[in-house]
Design a protein that fits this description.
409 residues; alpha/beta; Rossmann fold; Alpha-Beta Plaits; five-stranded antiparallel β-sheet; 16 strands; 44% helix; 18% strand
Length: 409
């Protein structure tokens, strides 16, 4: 199938999910996995590489026939790595990762040296930019097989309960749809922890007032209509797209390649702001955050620690506290490891520090301001520069703890 439109591209990426899931389970169960999976992933790789490449990126068409140029570095790169992993083994893959990232071995060794021998009652981590490489489009950021194997080994061997907590939606092109780790290896928590799938696959949610839910539903209906109008459908197709989360809505206004002209992107932002104000004129129930790429519209929550009637955004710290109570993370029962890569992940660390008797953290960042902020909360915080380094270090901790017990490639 020729990949000439954006919908076909997304369809192709979705087709790699079951292939990777089956391969991961086979590897973890020490069954042959390489031949069929590698061939299927090679086919997908060839289809992506056949997309015409122009100066602005790989050229596809929107359903309207207008062109869009995408940087497919994540999708192509992770498929290349998976094929290499399945056909040439883990040591070859690790060598390639070391070649791709300056200081790879030193940073891995630093994390392993600091955490060697540790076992964690709970492990709470962000996904994109932390344990998964960044992708220009959330809907195509399918987890790679090697990444899932490394993280699952760590979770199963050294962790009591592992949680991936993100601001992305849980499903309907969300966290659970893009993950290829085996069922039960991780609790998937979306919408900053407002919703999650428990170990039996049941959906659990942080309660939202009916009045607020009605406003959010109205926002989503009107935003969907706006995105269906001529000239605006592109904003549902680029970057984060249009994500209807639980307690929050995200819509892209730009992507990391800057494919939308600045004036057009700013104009769409103004339209979204006006729409929100028309529903909530005093912004009592909504908070708007513009990241430059995405517009985040978040339902507020009452702040028990402030004056009566005050409200604030629901953050990932609230998500951790909800999960600890509703799921039973047991933060107060043993060591906790928290991992993140941006300032929005710092509240997760603070929530753990408020309860857990011992907390360790690894942040994936080169930003000195963020490093200083994290170290101010936890002086022995660890830092690495790339998600691949963190994931490789977690895998190495397992190898150091029980040799080659888990087998596989």
């Amino acid at each position: 199938m020729a990949i000439d439109t954006l919908p076909r591209f997304y369809e192709l990426m979705r087709s790699t999910v079951p292939v990777r899931r089956d391969a991961v389970v086979a590897i973890l169960e020490r069954r042959p996995a390489a031949a069929v999976a590698a061939d299927r992933l090679r086919e997908a790789l060839r289809a992506l590489e056949a997309i015409p490449e122009e100066r602005a990126g790989r050229r596809l068409s929107l359903e309207t026939g207008r062109p869009i140029h995408l940087d497919l570095g994540y999708e192509i790169g992770e498929l290349l790595r998976d094929v290499e992993y399945l056909t040439q083994g883990e040591e070859r893959l690790l060598s390639e990762l070391a070649a791709d990232h300056a200081g790879f071995e030193a940073e891995v060794d630093a994390v392993v040296g600091a955490l060697a021998g540790a076992r964690f009652r709970s492990f709470v981590t962000d996904r994109d930019g932390t344990v998964n490489n960044y992708c220009g489009r959330y809907a195509s950021s399918v987890q790679s097989a090697y990444n899932a194997v490394f993280l699952t080994r760590f979770a199963r061997t050294l962790v009591g309960r592992a949680v991936i907590l993100t601001s992305a939606p849980l499903d309907d092109v969300g966290l659970a749809d893009l993950a290829v780790a085996p069922p039960g290896a991780f609790v998937h928590a979306g919408s900053k922890g407002r919703e999650y799938l428990d170990p039996k696959g049941r959906r659990r949610r942080f309660p939202i007032e009916a009045r607020q839910q009605e406003k959010l539903d109205e926002l989503n209906r009107r935003l969907a209509a706006l995105l269906g109008s001529p000239g605006r459908e592109v904003f549902a197709q680029i970057g984060s797209g249009f994500q209807r989360k639980f307690g929050q809505t995200t819509v892209a206004r730009q992507d990391i390649a800057g494919s939308i002209p600045a004036e057009r992107s700013e104009g769409f932002l103004a339209e979204v702001r006006e729409l929100v104000r028309s529903i909530d004129p005093e912004l009592e129930d909504f908070r708007i955050e513009d990241t430059g790429l995405d517009v985040e519209i978040v339902l507020t929550v009452g702040d028990a620690g402030a004056d009566a009637g005050s409200v604030r955004d629901f953050d990932k710290g609230d998500g951790v506290r909800f999960l600890n109570e509703d799921l039973g993370l047991g933060l107060d029962q043993g060591p906790c490891l928290v991992c993140g890569d941006t300032g929005s992940d710092v509240p997760m660390l603070q929530a753990a520090l408020d309860v857990a008797p011992e907390v360790r953290t690894v942040f994936v960042t080169r930003r000195e301001e963020l490093r200083s902020r994290v170290a101010g909360l936890l002086p022995d915080a660890l830092f690495v520069s790339e998600p691949d380094i963190l994931v490789a270090a977690l895998n190495a901790l397992v190898r150091g703890s029980d040799g080659d017990r888990w087998g596989g490639r």
